Amino acid sequence: MGKRSSQRKNAAMMDSDDDNSSVSSTSTMRSDHISVSVNEDMQVDKDSLLDQAVDALYEKRGSTREKALSAIIDAFNSNMQHQFVEKKFATLLHQCLICIKKGSSKEICLASHVIGLLALTVGCGDNAHEILEESLPVISQAFKSGSEVSKTSALLECLAIITFVGGSDPEQTEKSMQIMWQVVHPKQSSNVMAVKLSAAAITNMVSAWSFLLTTVDGRNLNFKDWQESITYLSSLLDRDDRSMRIAAGEALALIFEIGSLEKFSAGANTSSDASTEEGNKPREYVHIQGLKSKIINQARNLSAEAGGKSSAKKDLSNQRNTFRDILDYFEDGYSPEISLKIGGESLHTSTWSQMIQLNFLKRFLGGGFIKHMQENELLQDVLGFNPKKKNPSDSEHRLSGGEKRMFRSPNSVQSKARTQLLNKQRMLSEGKNIGRFAANMGDDA
């Protein structure tokens, strides 16, 4: 059966100016030397400005620290700051954590973003693990001190990024996902403030939680975890906010994509002599099918929702398109496809897992997305993007095609192999390798 007409292949052109980084082929030898000298001087100036920005984080005036953090973000977006990070990694992390502990909401947002950029720059290894270990208790405490949307969203994004990069075992990712979930569903015994969260905060939580869920091996979750997650996300589809609906719908599609829930629930309570005949399915299987049917009906309604007088056409169109894709997936098994052009090279996604990773990283990096995709080997391997290499020797430290597919597998079939490979990469490259980690999720909702 062919793909449904509503199954779309999206395309976008990401502009980049590759010529800016090279000297014109018509230049003379003298002008080449001049250009190189100017570029070196500019780099020295940029490094000096970064050093000054880090020094400014020690200032008492909050507005000074905020300007410094903004300058650091701009620098990390415009260039891969590997040399700077090697010199100032610990200092920058420490000062950003102080900003999160003591700063204003704006300062917390900026510092959280810097820490996320720092993690993406250092890549997998000891430094990324240190970022996660040092930041986790600070971020957890910051969640308990208030619920401003901008601050909560920035902390969630930061937690998602540093866990995605630095989480070296399932328990670490599980812990981060539990912290995210408790932002919306605080435990009675926790110190999280029991306040009514805005739609934007809930949407951002679901988005960050889904981003980490792309690394989860669904086979290791029990029925209770799946049931509570699906039930809650399904309830969000009935809320008024369209962004929340879209985030929840994508999360539900991802859960069913990675979970193999029919197989999982069919074997949940099956003993060695239990019947597997049709009509004698375990109650978990029946319950999962009931939830799935409800979600399909919700998706069908949302894919054809009529707009009201106050309805924004763009938001309504985004909702309709998303839920047509979700409906196609649940009914026919077709996932949405995305194709991006970045500097003349193509990046493709064909699963919910890949799409969620791509969209989350694009939102987080903003104007720095193109630069990172062109030069950040971690993101290139995570998203399966292969730009032309300027230096053939660069490939010595890259993963093979088979290894990349292993890391990107949405079904997490080779979870153990992935973890072993990452450990091997860390040992061989002293913490400067690339990859992503399979992880486990716990949900105490």
From TrEMBL:
<dbReference type="InterPro" id="IPR039777">
    <property type="entry name" value="IFRD"/>
</dbReference>
<feature type="domain" description="Interferon-related developmental regulator N-terminal">
    <location>
        <begin position="23"/>
        <end position="331"/>
    </location>
</feature>
<dbReference type="InterPro" id="IPR007701">
    <property type="entry name" value="Interferon-rel_develop_reg_N"/>
</dbReference>
<dbReference type="Pfam" id="PF05004">
    <property type="entry name" value="IFRD"/>
</dbReference>
<dbReference type="InterPro" id="IPR011989">
    <property type="entry name" value="ARM-like"/>
</dbReference>
<dbReference type="InterPro" id="IPR016024">
    <property type="entry name" value="ARM-type_fold"/>
</dbReference>
<feature type="domain" description="Interferon-related developmental regulator C-terminal">
    <location>
        <begin position="376"/>
        <end position="429"/>
    </location>
</feature>
<dbReference type="InterPro" id="IPR006921">
    <property type="entry name" value="Interferon-rel_develop_reg_C"/>
</dbReference>
<feature type="region of interest" description="Disordered">
    <location>
        <begin position="387"/>
        <end position="415"/>
    </location>
</feature>
<protein>
    <recommendedName>
        <fullName>Interferon-related developmental regulator N-terminal domain-containing protein</fullName>
    </recommendedName>
</protein>
<dbReference type="Pfam" id="PF04836">
    <property type="entry name" value="IFRD_C"/>
</dbReference>
<comment type="similarity">
    <text>Belongs to the IFRD family.</text>
</comment>
<feature type="compositionally biased region" description="Basic and acidic residues">
    <location>
        <begin position="391"/>
        <end position="406"/>
    </location>
</feature>
<feature type="region of interest" description="Disordered">
    <location>
        <begin position="1"/>
        <end position="36"/>
    </location>
</feature>
